[in-house]
Amino acid sequence: MTRQSNEKLVEVKNLKKYFRLSRNQYVKAVDNVTFDIKQGETFGLVGESGCGKSTTGRTIIRLYDATDGQVIFDGKDVHQLNRKEMFDFNKDVQMIFQDPYASLNPRMTVEDIIAEGLDIHGLVANQKERRDRVVELLETVGLNKDHAVRFPHEFSGGQRQRIGIARALALDPKFIIADEPISALDVSIQAQVVNLLKQLQQDKGLTYLFIAHDISMVKYISDRIGVMYLGNLVEMTESEKLIEDPLHPYTQALLSAVPIADPHTERSRERIILKGDVPSPIDPPSGCRFRTRCAHAKPECAEIVPEWKEVHKGHWVACHLY
Ligand code: SF4
C-alpha cells in the first residue's frame, strides 16, 4: 500500500463538462461529478468507453475548460489560475496518455522528448546536466542511456509507455493523471507498467488518478475507486470494499465480467449481462441514467434522479435501492 496522508491534494466539486453540438444540443460528457484524491493515494476511475472518465481527467488538468463546478489542486481553483500559477500547475501535474504510439513525437529523439519540459521550465543549466537528468529518468523507468539518442519508432509498445512515464516524471510532479496507460499494451506488458507505476509511487510519494475501462487492473493499483456511467459517478469506495461488496447494479455487472482464477468459483458464479449499449449523452435517460440497462429498475427510477449518498462510511452510491 502507498504512503497516504489524509490531506486532500485534489478536490473535484460538482464538475460539469458539456460539449456544444448546436444551439441547444450538448453532449453532457461529465455531469456533476464530485470526489477528492488524498496525498499519496491512487484513485481509480472506471467505466465503459464514453462514460466521461477521460473527459474528467482532461478537465482536471485543464486541457478542457469546465462548464461548471470546481477543481481544487493544492488549495487553489485550477480553472481560476493566472498565467504564472498555470505555469507552476503544469509542472506539478502531468499526464500519461493511453496511446504510447501517438503521444510521442516521431521526429524527436527520446532525449528531446523527455527533456522538453525541463527546457520549458528552465530546469537544466547546460547540455551535460540535461543529458544526465534524461539518463537518470531513463534508468528510473527501466531503460538505459543508449536509448536517449533513438527515435520512438525503434521501441516496443511497453518501452514507449516507459518513455511516456519518464517524460511525466521529468518535472518531479506531485500528481499524475494516467489515462488508460496500459490499454494499448500487450497483456504480458500491462502488469510490468502497472508495477512500475506502483514502485514510482512508493519511491516518490506520487498521487495518481488512474483511468481505465478494465476494472480488474484498476482494482490492483487503486486505493479507492469511482465508477462512472454516462457522465455520472454511480459508486465510490475503497477498492477492497468495492470488490467484496459492490452496491450499484452497474458496478455489480462490471465485476461479474472479470474472470476469477479459481475454476470452481468461475464455473459456479452468475454473470450479469448488460443489455444494449450505453445511451447517448446528448439525450440521457430521465431519472437514473442506468435504468435502460438495469435489471432492478422500478417506476421511480425513470422519475427521480437518485441521490449521491454515503451509505456506509466512505462508501457512496447513487441508486434508489439504497
Ligand atoms: Fe437500477 Fe433504479 Fe438503482 Fe438506477 S436507481 S441503478 S435503475 S435500481
Detailed description of the structure:
The protein is of the alpha/beta class. The chain has a single domain, classed as 3-Layer(aba) Sandwich (Rossmann fold), CATH 3.40.50. It has helices at residues 53-60, 83-92, 110-120, 127-140, 157-169, 187-204, 215-221, 239-244, 249-256, 263-268, 299-303, and strands spanning 8-22, 25-38, 42-46, 68-73, 76-77, 93-96, 175-179, 207-212, 224-229, 232-238, 309-312, 315-317. It has an eight-stranded mixed beta sheet, with helices on both faces. It has a four-stranded antiparallel beta sheet with strand order 2-1-4-5. A hairpin with a 2-residue loop joins strand 11 and strand 12 (315-317). The longest helix is centred in the middle third of the chain and has 18 residues, at 187-204. The protein is globular and about 70 Å long. The protein starts with 7 loop residues before the first strand and ends in a 5-residue tail after the last strand. 39% of the residues are buried. Iron/sulfur cluster binds at residues 248-249, 288, 290-291, 294, 296-297, 301, 306, 319-321.
